[in-house]
Design goal:
By secondary structure, the chain is mainly alpha-helical. The protein has one domain. It is 63% helix and 4% strand. It has a two-stranded antiparallel ribbon with strand order 1-2. A two-stranded antiparallel ribbon has the order 3-4. It has a two-stranded antiparallel sheet with strand order 5-6. The protein is globular. The C terminus is likely disordered.
């Protein structure tokens, strides 16, 4: 079942040692009332590690590097979230991490065969349309959440993977140009641009402009991959015109942004520490208080600040675990999304998938970290897998499944007289 059992074994040992070292730190330096709290946390984290190590080999892949990194980051997140304000297993976050692992497997299965997925293109567009209607009709008064008792769902999160798939399934259409007036037009490009405009309007309606750069990053990545597609032949004048139009739209958007956005753009956090600048000022103070090595798990103050577990989670980790450890966590996330960009994907379609996922994750991390550090206006965007949130966890896991699908074999080549050769990868456009 495994082509290199020794490599798999040592990867398992590495993940266990990493989580074990963190748990030892919690036991020695953590703030807890009883050692049983640490034991329960350790049992949950190491138990999930061992269970996933057993399950992973049943999914045939060329490499399990991304899966190991995902498990490493997820259980690091469980330890972080279980220590904010005192050591106690965060059961809800643990469950959402499990849903992320399940979502990863689902994304792998759905996206590994690009020919089948291209046939479902209409269903992808229909799914995006349904989610938009749901947001407008069921989330309440211009909100982005659906409340189902103790559970809240953010439908806009589910649009992200569908939008990435829509961009990826359109690359082969670039050679099918149609003459409209004096222009050669690809209908798919017009349709995707329309979806992007609809998403912009929807985010404005939901008062969630902070998530808009993520969708724009996905669209930009897909657009660049469509430009690079063989024989796409985009006119330089068209590209320059699109760039000028985009810059003009950005200027108009900033000038006529809603009042709450204007306030965030111009707020002086230190002169308004108890108002609009409260979260950012406290986040910066928390980073400074933690220094390079942190004040200790459970000994932070930011656990008393609103949205410490999601919107300013980078600062909360920096305070308790140290800026060095927080930066290392971000590097692990970047490494996870960068590996499929370094290793050649199985097809151009999968390369577009990887670019879209990489753009989404990178933009989200940048918005959260730079916003917490007051380098850009505060957006409230979460860090994938680190911040709490069930909808975000599930969709982020699904998108990581897209990355594993781009690195895994799915086709078998039949040669005359030699039968089927298993495990042979086939490069396709």
């Amino acid at each position: 079942m495994l082509e290199n059992p020794l490599s798999y074994f040592f990867s398992c040992i590495f993940v266990l040692l990493a989580h074990g070292a963190m748990l030892v730190n919690v036991f020695i330096n953590g703030n807890y009332e009883s050692s049983s709290n640490v034991i329960i946390l350790a049992a949950a984290v190491l138990g999930l590690d061992l269970l996933y190590f057993i399950i992973m080999p049943f999914f045939r892949q060329m490499t399990y590097t991304i899966d190991f990194l995902l498990l490493l980051v997820l259980n690091m997140s469980v330890i972080f979230q279980s220590c904010f304000g005192g050591v106690e297993l965060n059961v809800k976050h643990m469950i959402t991490c499990v849903t992320a692992l399940i979502g990863c497997r689902a994304g792998h299965i759905v996206c590994r065969d690009h020919r089948w997925l291209a046939q479902q293109k209409k269903l992808v567009y229909i799914g995006i349309a349904i989610l938009m209607v749901v947001i407008v009709t069921l989330t309440g008064s211009r909100s982005m959440w659906i409340s189902l008792g103790p559970i809240t769902i953010q439908p806009s999160e589910f649009i992200k993977p569908l939008f990435i798939i829509a961009c990826a399934t359109s690359v082969t259409e670039q050679q099918q140009k149609h003459k409209v007036l004096f222009f050669n037009v690809v209908y798919e490009n017009v349709f995707l641009f329309g979806i992007m405009c609809a998403i912009c309007l929807l985010q404005w309606w939901c008062r969630d402009l902070g998530s808009l750069p993520t969708f724009m990053g996905i669209y930009a990545a897909g657009f660049l991959l469509r430009i690079c597609y063989p024989k796409a032949k985009f006119s330089k004048k068209t590209l320059i015109g699109a760039g000028i139009a985009l810059a003009a739209v950005a200027v108009v958007a900033v000038k006529f942004a809603p009042e709450y956005v204007q306030e965030r753009l111009h707020v002086d956090i230190w002169s308004d520490k108890d108002g609009s600048g409260y979260q950012q000022s406290q986040a910066l103070i928390g980073i400074a208080r933690g220094g390079w090595f942190g004040s200790g798990p459970g000994y932070g103050y930011l656990c008393n600040v609103f949205a410490h577990e999601n919107d300013i989670v980078f600062s909360t980790i920096s305070e308790e675990w140290g800026l060095l450890f927080a930066l290392m966590t971000i590097c692990m996330l970047l490494l996870m999304v960068a590996i499929p960009m370094i290793n050649p994907p199985r097809s151009y379609f999968h390369g577009t998938l990887c670019a879209g996922v990489c753009a989404a994750f990178t933009v989200q991390m940048a918005l959260n970290i730079f916003g917490s550090c007051n380098m850009i206006p505060f957006t409230g965007v979460t860090i994938p897998f680190i911040s709490v949130g069930g909808s975000s966890m599930m969709t982020s896991g699904f998108m990581i499944g897209m990355l594993t699908a781009s690195q895994s074999p799915v086709f078998r080549i039949r040669r005359p007289g030699s039968g089927i050769l298993p495990g042979v990868r086939r490069q396709t456009i």
